[in-house]
Amino acid sequence: MAFISDTLSRVKPSPTIAVSNLAAELKAAGKDVIGLGAGEPDFDTPDHIKAAAKAAIDAGKTKYTAVDGIPELKQAICAKLKRDNGLSYEPAQVSVGTGGKQILYNALMATLNPGDEVVIPAPYWVSYPDMVLLAGGTPVSVEATLENDFKLTPEQLEAAITPKTKWFIFNSPSNPTGAGYSHDELKALTDVLMRHPHVWVMTDDMYEHLSYEGFTFCTPAEVEPGLYERTLTCNGVSKAYAMTGWRIGYAAGPKELIAAMRKIQSQSTSNPCSVSQWAAVEALNGPQGFLDDWRKVFQRRRDLVVSMLSKIDGMTCPTPDGAFYVYPSIAGLIGKTTPTGVKIENDEIFAKALLEEKGVAVVFGAAFGLSPCFRVSYATSDEALTEACTRIQDFCASLS
């Protein structure tokens, strides 16, 4: 009898974390490496948020809290959803977890039975399919191609839904592509979902506030109120507020689902960090003006990376609507060979050769379910991005 669970054999470690760890190891060994794999802002957490955390420590707010969030944070989340998204929730409809990942995982664990299917547009965040597998469900990946700007069409969604479909996971702006759905594009998808009342919607709105000129964010229950009762609207403070290490994610949805998620959390992690919760209260309720400044920086970096990568023969680099990633296609480079004799047969080999020969760490596209591509995170300095893109240009020019 095997000691390790059969369920665990169905999943794999996070490729994005693996790339970041490898880049860190190479740096520690003295290699000149530029890491473009991490999905976190390089900005520091704003001072007013850090001050709120310090005040919470000084006030002794370091004990256990309610399993899925303090009342003050739930109220702040309700106010945020009303203010930014026009969605009305009460605290009993809100769950706070240790990061957005736990929120999604809790929901899937609370609802999936063997045979249940979850429709996931690809490219997708690497954790979606594996969380579905851990929960006993079956991920159904549907490719949103470069030709469609990495966005799922209504026809594709319709074709993917079966009587076994329980959830549709929706992420906009997207990790890894940065693609965002306009109101009309999202309405076309919600029209499909309205014809299938057995399908629930799980939104990942983590990059909501990282949307750039020409794109306006919207979320499914906002676009189609008829989906309100079967939508779990998920978000967090990690990306927008540069609070990745604070580990606070949240969701709002029907009370029955929230109660089921609370039950799972009560027997796994229990409450999120008390100090982080008070910091999140300030993040959501406090000044928001710095977000405009950050967006301008990210947009400048996006334009820099897209401009430099678009000059490479054999590479196509679309301009994303949001988040802090670009997802170039290397279809025109497949089959070429590096000066050291490595044949670029797929995007994983491309990423490995790029790291070994030029010291640039990126995440290969197969990890996100769509090849041949790779993901670049531009959440780092202009100087590092310029040097990294120059190295990528040199690497690609050396292929024959």
TrEMBL record:
The lineage of its organism: Bacteria, Pseudomonadati, Pseudomonadota, Alphaproteobacteria, Rhodobacterales. It comes from Rhodalgimonas zhirmunskyi. Signal peptide: none annotated. Its EC number is 2.6.1.-. GO terms for biological process: amino acid metabolic process. Keywords: Aminotransferase, Pyridoxal phosphate, Transferase. Belongs to the class-I pyridoxal-phosphate-dependent aminotransferase family. The keyword Metal-binding does not apply. The keyword ATP-binding does not apply. This is Aminotransferase.
